[in-house]
Amino acid sequence: MALIDKFLKKTLNDQESENPLNILVCFSKPETGKSLCKIANYFMQSKLKNEQIASLHLLEKDEYDKIDNIETFKASLYDGVMQECRKGSAMVRTFVKSSDDFVSEILSTSNELDCNLVLIGIGKTVFTPQLWGTYQKFQAYKGSSECSEAPLDTLSSKGVSSLLERNNKTTGIFIDHNLDTINDIFIPILDKSDIHIFDYIKRLAEKTSAKITIWDAIGIIESVPELKKVFSNMQRSNDERVSLWDNSKKIAYDFIKQQDLIIIGFDGWVKLISSAITWSHSLQSTLIIRKK
Predict the structure, then answer these.
(1) Measuring CA to CA, which residue among 203, 197, 213 is closest to residue 264?
(2) What is the pTM of this model?
(3) Domains of the chain with CATH codes
């Protein structure tokens, strides 16, 4: 219950976050990068100062060498998305780098910029539940040096697990299924350790007009009176756009397909893909967050 107590303490003290977010967004495919930058912008709190977004577009060296003018390339790459980000109070920086070792480049850039949240965008065919497997498989691959050799757009589940284990910052893995608008967000809570997801729910509710549905599969909101109060306050302050799924009802495949974005904690994701739930392998764009 330590994580829950920690969350409740800072929430009841009306603190929006322990620290301002300093987000590093990493991607190799422009469309995935645009989607992930949109999410990063929604995580920014308008009430907090000194929050930052750094966007890192990674290219293999042969691709990078073909670019005639890097500034023109950056302007085209970030057109629209960065303008949207700059409407807020967060500082926005953009980078384009070439590397033969994407994982090490991500870790190095994160440390240089002192980021506390690293978001990695990958394609839908790269990081499916079938490829990822279970958490035990991740542990088996932990520390494998060969994981860092693959470029990000073809990064294997083994490489992603290496990145998760080597990064000492909170990490989000974004599986892109052509995310465009964010009108409906589904947030499953399947493990007590994923209580930190509530921080992102608060931020999304403030910055978007999206309908946010929480599936409290383990009944943690109802079982902790203080957390139930926090949830009720969140509902009232956001025009009831934040709702709790009725656990007496079955979650239908059609409902899942209507969601624009799924946000889930790491341990909850492991439980979800290991379950017999029929729709768990048919999710829309999904952000899996592992807190360190």
Answers:
(1) 197
(2) 0.85
(3) 14-175 (3.40.50.620), 184-290 (3.40.50)
